[in-house]
Every structure is written in C-alpha cells, then in structure tokens.
Amino acid sequence: METYKLSFGIINKIGKNIAEVIVNEGIEMDTVKVSEYHDFLLNNLEAPFLLLVNRKHCYTYTFEAQKIIARLEEIKSIAVVANTSGGVLSTKTLINVNGNANLNIELFREREEALVWLNKE
Hints:
Blueprint: E1 2-6, E2 9-13, E3 18-23, E4 28-29, H1 31-44, E5 49-54, E6 60-61, H2 63-68, E7 75-81, H3 85-97, E8 105-108, H4 111-120
Parallel strand pairs: 3-5, 4-6, 5-7, 7-8
Antiparallel strand pairs: 1-2, 2-3
C-alpha cells in the first residue's frame, strides 16, 4: 500500500483503482481542496475509482464542496466508514445535497466491511 500526503490529509492507494481517504482533524474541505483531491485520483488511480472514505477524524465541508466532491464521473462507488453520529450525519447530509446525482455511496461502521463491499462493486 502506498501512502500520499495531501494538504487536507492522506490517501492510501490500496490497489490500481482503490484508495482510502483520511481527512485530517479540523479540516474544512473547500473547492480548492476538492480540486486537489480529484486531481490526485485522476493522476494516480485507474478508472473506475472505488473509494473508502475513513471518517476517523472530525472535519467539515463548505456547501460548494459538498455539491462537487462525489461528482467526478470516474468515481464508481464510495464506502464511508463512520463511527460517530456526527460522521454519519455529515455523510447523510452530503448524500442529500447530491440527491439528484445518482451516487453509489454506502455507510459502514467497520473498515473491513466497507472494503468487502467495495471489492464486490
């Protein structure tokens, strides 16, 4: 597994098209950070992308970032691991903001369970 440090956190490249995203504590994801994130995915993974978003830290999104973060057409599926009620609520809000986008996002409590689901996608 390869690990990359970005301005907002780290991305662990698990496979040629699978990555785990861990955003640092207290970060506010804005459109600039989302662009950095999308650029990383496009330049380091093979499409279609399978993403594991590990919400082990508390962070926020601007409204503009919420609208675009999951809308990269190369993203096939996103598994979100959320162990706190805040993480679950934040993820459900992001899904609702993108309600008309037909996103394939699932919530999980355990990382291994999320990886199993992604590998079936």
